[in-house]
Amino acid sequence: MSLTEINFDGIVGPSHNYAGLSLGNIASASHGGDPSYPRAAALQGVAKMRGNLARLGVQGFLLPLPRPNHALLDALALDETTPPQLRAAAWSASSMWTANAATVSPAPDTVDGRCHLTPANLVTMLHRAQEWPDTKRQLAIAFGDIAHFAIHDAVPPSFGDEGAANHMRLCESHDAPGVEVFVYGRPGGRFPARQHEQASRIVARRHGLDPARTVFIEQNPEAIAAGAFHNDVVAVANGRVLFTHAEAFADQQNAYDAIRAAFPALEVVEVPSCAVTLQEAIRTYLFNAQLLTLPSGEMALIVPEECRESASVWGWAEGMLASNGPIRQVIPVDVRQSMANGGGPACLRLRVVCDPARVDPRFLLDEAKANRIERVIAQTWPEQIDPADIGSDALAASVIAARLALLDALDLAQLG
């Protein structure tokens, strides 16, 4: 097999809206009630995918889940007394953030030599807890070769599991055994700690990981309180490199020591608080970035445009590039519609190390397919959704028709 890392980006769904449903997500809360622009959001996402396809030569995608979720609407027994947030939950397009779709352990790390995927249960938030059965159904099609992939059910409640957003992998190469790092939070703070330690340990056991190459680290509770609701808001790893804020972990030095004990080749690129405050790192999503290894062997950091607009963040980035460290490029992308709802470039992608030939080709992007996706979005995605629109029959019909048009264009009507 020829193993490579494929980024599977979530296509932003036609019901993309700002209902402010995500407690602890500062951007989501601050834009709650604003009008959203689903068409622009989805086209921004496709543009990001096109860029990475050009850089890496391979790019995947996952489809929006069916919205509104009528089963959830029925279960909530809605009437005129229902808070609008409950209705909005069934309309959420949050599955676009595929970093929360699943935790992925590549074949070189697992006891049976298959790539294992466990869909995240996302039980902390109602609008996300509805996702995993439909996510699993999609993963089972995209990675349906059971000789090479194992798709699990979600971790049972009440252990909260948020997927790859709290999981990192370090390795010498994709086809070599790696070290998997699970980052969890402790409850009791200002905002919920969404990733539970036991959920991480359950995933590691069911994936058949070597305990000697598996590390569990506590996230800094102050980072969670500041709005780092997932680890990928303050740290990201790729190859030998851990790119992290100085306040990412509860015990920063012990975290480095634990990882280095399992992976001696570790290279840490730490951003000190004196250069970029924790609050500015979270506001700009400097760490919610895609850290990629380019075909040349150089690493590139794909960051939101908001990073270039921050004097402290961009100043640090320019200094980092001048220092000739392992990250050689910093590339801003426009994902403002996603950012306003609390998701940056890293939130929008799930990394799967596998042989591309073993993936259902309908989920792999090429230029012709990108053109098809863009045409459907331009023709059918709502241009704007106002908060008062949520729940209307006309919008529901429009959103459903738009998604079905995309499924038809991609020969994936079975997901309807």
- What fold name goes in the CATH topology slot? L-arginine/glycine Amidinotransferase, Chain A
First-to-last CA distance: 32 Å
Mean of the pLDDT scores? 97
The profile of the biggest β sheet is: 3 strands, mixed
Query: What is the name of the CATH architecture?
Result: 5-stranded Propeller
| CATH level 1 class label | Alpha Beta
CATH superfamily: Succinylarginine dihydrolase
Number of strands: 15
Radius of gyration, in Å, reads 20 Å
How many separate helices? Answer: 15
Helix content bin: 25-40%
Written description of the protein model:
The chain has 416 residues and is of the alpha/beta class. The protein has a single domain, classed as L-arginine/glycine Amidinotransferase, Chain A. Helices cover 33% and strands 18% of the residues. The protein contains 15 helices and 15 strands. A 3-stranded mixed beta sheet has the order 2-1-15, with no helix packed on it. Strands 3-4-5 form a 3-stranded mixed beta sheet. Helix 2 runs antiparallel to helix 14 and helix 14 (367-380) runs antiparallel to helix 15. The longest helix has 19 residues, at 38-56. The chain is globular, with a radius of gyration of 20 Å.
Secondary-structure map with pairings?
Layout lengths: L3 E7 L15 H5 L7 H19 L3 E3 L7 H6 L8 H6 L12 E4 L9 E5 L6 H4 L2 H11 L6 E3 L15 E4 L8 E6 L12 H10 L7 E5 L2 H6 L8 E4 L2 E5 L6 H11 L4 E5 L6 H7 L5 E4 L5 E6 H4 L2 H12 L4 E7 L2 H5 L8 E6 L12 H14 L12 H17 L7
Parallel strand pairs: 1-2, 4-5, 7-8, 10-11, 13-14
Antiparallel strand pairs: 1-15, 3-4, 6-7, 9-10, 12-13
Helix pairs in contact: 2-14, 14-15
